[in-house]
Amino acid sequence: MSPDVKFEVFSDKISSIYKIRISEPIPHLKITYQVTWNYANIHEDAISMDDIPEYIRKTYLQLPQTLPVEVKILAESLKNTSLTVLDQVLKDVKYFVNNFEYDSEIQTKGFIERDWVLTFLKKRKGICMDAATALTIILRCQGIPARVCCGFKPREKVGHKVLYSVSEAHALTEVYLPPYGWVPFDATPAGVRLSTRRFFFC
């Protein structure tokens, strides 16, 4: 900065807003900056499920007590002990992406039976939240810590405000893969508008 002043960096990663804040306006202040970033590559041989903290296991391997046996059977049928953890997750993701249909009207038809995930598995139709929930439960059945993550894509900026719309909501699954931490995976079936398929971090 010219002149040199104290500042702080503000970032809102969900809405992709990054700002440099200063305590008071300074006439003729010049700010020069450069931004660089890198996408992290995940190396399968570095993943060690032995390094999962106990609180992660305790919290993110929980299953509903009323989970139907059909869901557990599917999880077991998809499980392949010869696969790496990452390949197992990708196999599960592929199962939902390739064998299910995106249907945004399905929630209005009131067809939920005795279990949300089981209903999605039977109907093979649903939205991102259905796929994220089902993938999360399947992974937990396989002993892989997972959680559902939800967020909103910003619609537009009006002045200093960022507006969000329910129509731009999205959900996906995050999987805990040491040493990388929470890694997002999107099992949303084909048919969803690509503009809404964004990663959100909770």
Key words describing this protein structure:
202 residues; alpha+beta; C8orf32 fold; three-stranded antiparallel beta sheet; two-stranded antiparallel ribbon; globular
DSSP strand count: 7
Distance between the termini: 33 Å
Query: Overall pLDDT, averaged?
Result: 83
Low-confidence parts lasting 5 or more residues at pLDDT below 50?
192-202
DSSP strand (E) fraction? 25-35%
For the record, the CATH architecture stands as Roll
The ordered H/E elements are EEHHHEHEHEEE
Care to describe what's here?
The chain has helices spanning 54-60, 69-78, 85-99, 116-123, 128-141, and strands at 7-12, 17-22, 101-102, 125-126, 146-158, 161-177, 181-185. β1 (7-12) and β2 form a beta hairpin. The chain has one domain (45-196): C8orf32 fold. The protein is α+β, with helices and mostly antiparallel strands and 202 residues long. Mean pLDDT is 83; it is low at 192-202. α3 (85-99) runs antiparallel to α5 and α4 (116-123) crosses α5. The longest helix has 15 residues, at 85-99.
In short:
Helix content is 27%, strand content 25%. By secondary structure, it is of the alpha+beta class. Helix 4 (116-123) links the parallel strand 3 (101-102) and strand 4 (125-126).
